[in-house]
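Page 47, continued from p. 46.
Same chain as before, 199 aa.
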Amino acid sequence: MAAMASRRRGPLGSVLWNMLVQAVWPLFILAVVAGAGWGGQKLWRVWTDPTYWPVGEVIINGAGNYVDEASVRLALEPEMEKGFLGMDLYAARESLMTNAWIAQAVLAREWPNRVRVDIVEQVPLALWQGDQVMNIQGEVFRPVLDSIPDGLPVLAGAEGRQWAVWERFNTLVDVLNDSGLQLAGVKEDERGSLDLFLA
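Result:
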């Protein structure tokens, strides 16, 4: 059958047909790729349009003692305005981490329009240098002063010595409790000697 078609076209028709196919085929492929790219771009715009696919619900776990849900929602607001798929979870996390009371934050999208925020709050152990807080890992962070809870032991000393000062404080608490005295804090000077503050 192919022989009959080539006989009807003749040698010149066959050559022209091949040239036409070779010229049109790349244009066809280019049109398909361009159409797919254009369609994909339009689809992405629709999906990331916050009015088309807004964040429907934010579930916050772990807030309570030092971090309230309202402050978490406020920190997330600029990213939530971008919609469910347009929201940059990394940028939202960075915004949350500006709150000194947040030790760790994990954000995740949950289909179809929910964002889950898991927060681990700092656990304060002692007041350090009067304006910082030492957590249970011995790390120092600087929250807003009026958010620091009352009743924390007051510690002071050289930079990087907070855990050693804490251990010395604990040793002295046990000794002084046996004597009926209550230790409120200690200050270690550069020589390693301690000033004690009683409650």
